[in-house]
# Entry
Amino acid sequence: MGMAKKKKGRQGGKKESPKDGGKARKGRESSQGGKNPRGGNSLVEWAKSLFVALVLFLIIRTFLIHTFVIISGSMEETLLVGDLLLVNRASVGSRIPGTPWRIPGYSKLRRGDVVVFDPHHEVDMKLVKRLMGLPGDTLMMRDKVFYVNGEALDEPYVQNMGTPDDPHPWMSWQEEYYLGGSSNGNYQPTRDNWGPMVVPPEHYFMLGDNRDTSLDSRYWGFLEGWRVEGRAVLVYFSYNKGSLRPFPWLREVRWGRIGDLVS
# Structure
């Protein structure tokens, strides 16, 4: 009898009843079941990452780097139709959208820079030209030769098509700035012969490299400095945009131009 009690003591203790076991299992299942809190956190983290990426993209595009596609031949052969450019906004400063303020750049515009700008005569359009006149410069052209402050410039990038000189009514704006004295209406500027005139403060004079076909400052006037968007620096992709073949951006890629610096 003593041995029976001892055995009972070793095996004794509180036994888990079927009812208690069911409660314990139910508790464990309820703690593991239902909505997974990690799933909700992952969704929130994904949304945060997407928001941060979007903000960074807008900051880079607005203040640092912009892209531009060449759609006309006014800058041939420097830039071809179908060239896709990277434009450095940070170098010359950029406008803060919706305000008259501008973030200063780390360099100044120079004569010969190829720049993208917002022209005053075309709404919602960007153009690319070569900056050829700085504030205070005296400019003129004689038989296609461009003069700055009385000196003819060597311009190896210029392309002339050999077409005859062409007067244009748009060029009448030049009479206000003509330095030849009172013209009495006799000043008749043409595409290849005009000036002299002085670039006003905070303005620039823009010319296309393809001088015979470019509609530039000769026709629509000086460009306000705040309209400059940035300096074109690199051709990051190029294809024959005028090709009649299907998918020219795949079949007509100009591999030799990709990575070329704009100068």
